[in-house]
Amino acid sequence: MKSNVQIAPAELNNDAWSANAQFNEYMSASNPAMPAIEVTSFDASLHQNGETRIIPMDLSAELQTAYPATSPNLLANFIRICANESLSTAAEATSEMFYVISGSGTTETEWGLTAWKTGDLFVLPATATAKHSASEDSAIYWVTDAPILKYLGVVAHSQQFSPVMFSHEQIQEKLMAEFDAPGSASRNRIGILFGNPACPLTKTLTHTLWSLYNILPAGVTQLPHRHNSVALDYCVAAAENTYTLIGEKVDENGHIIDPIKAMWKPGCVFVTPPGWWHSHHNESAENAIVLPIQDAGLLTNMQVLDIQFIREQT
């Protein structure tokens, strides 16, 4: 039956909408100057002492964001939990990575209870809250993709993968298998990429996060490479005189021009900007390990990661 109800026409908003229109000349605006992503370090002292707490590595002022961020797409944090205490984390994110720097305990989520110890790494999908309880003084490196969601103004409405745990024993076994493999000494990097059954194409930690457990043998230099993802590099182990050289350009011999030196100090994090060349140097007598977390899962899916190597070591 046809209704006789008359609906008043909506008021036109053309003037208000037109007032928001902006126009930019192409050559001056096609490649705008964005806030610089600097080589920044966060010291291990941030998580080694004090009360139970979360320590954000917040560079939002430098990145000019209205929300906490360490890079445009990622937020890194240290978590410190004192013995026999608990702390809950909650992130509006699709992916959360936890690497246990020291200590032991459990994490309880909607997925159940899992135990962790020094050297373990695990990832969670979109999760309302996670309760972490420590049986001894503990520190955790926690990275999420929350800034992506904040930038887009969205919330996660589904879980893109199931939790994955990489035990310290598994990690060490796989790493040493690569270290001892024939021809490993000639590789630009010697390490293992963490994978997820839900990411068969990108072969990454999650659909947004990428992570490498990279060993830098004593006395070895791993030659420069670059990629479009931002790396948040956590130093697992290193002796003195172990460092990364980072710079925007290389010369005709493949040497980084005017590099910035980021020292490897166990328990610290440093930021490697996107597109910058970086080489790893171990001038000590001990093997070193670095754990970079990147937004390369997202960039790999977009097919814009663009990893480039100077040349293979000989």
Kindly state the number of beta strands.
21
Q: What is the multimeric organization of the chains shown? A: single chain
Mean pLDDT: 94
Strand arrangement across the biggest beta sheet: 1-18-15-20-13-12
CATH class: Mainly Beta
* CATH topology tier name: Jelly Rolls
N→C terminal distance: 83 Å
Notes on the protein architecture:
The chain is mainly beta and 314 residues long. It has one domain (41-307): Sandwich (Jelly Rolls). 14% of the residues lie in helices and 35% in strands. It is built from seven helices and 21 strands. Strands 1-18-15-20-13-12 form a six-stranded antiparallel β-sheet. Strands 2-3-10-5-8-11 form a six-stranded antiparallel β-sheet. Strand 6 (104-109) and strand 7 form a beta hairpin. The mean pLDDT is 94.
Supply the key terms.
314 residues, mainly beta, Jelly Rolls, six-stranded antiparallel sheet, 21 strands, globular
List the helices and strands and how they pair.
Layout: H1 14-18, H2 26-29, E1 41-42, H3 45-48, E2 53-56, H4 60-63, E3 75-81, E4 86-89, E5 95-102, E6 104-109, E7 112-117, E8 121-125, E9 130-134, E10 138-144, H5 146-152, E11 164-166, H6 168-179, E12 190-193, E13 210-216, E14 221-226, E15 231-237, E16 242-247, E17 260-263, E18 269-272, E19 277-282, E20 288-294, H7 296-302, E21 308-309
Antiparallel strand pairs: 1-18, 2-3, 3-10, 4-9, 5-8, 5-10, 6-7, 6-9, 8-11, 12-13, 13-20, 14-19, 14-21, 15-18, 15-20, 16-17, 16-19
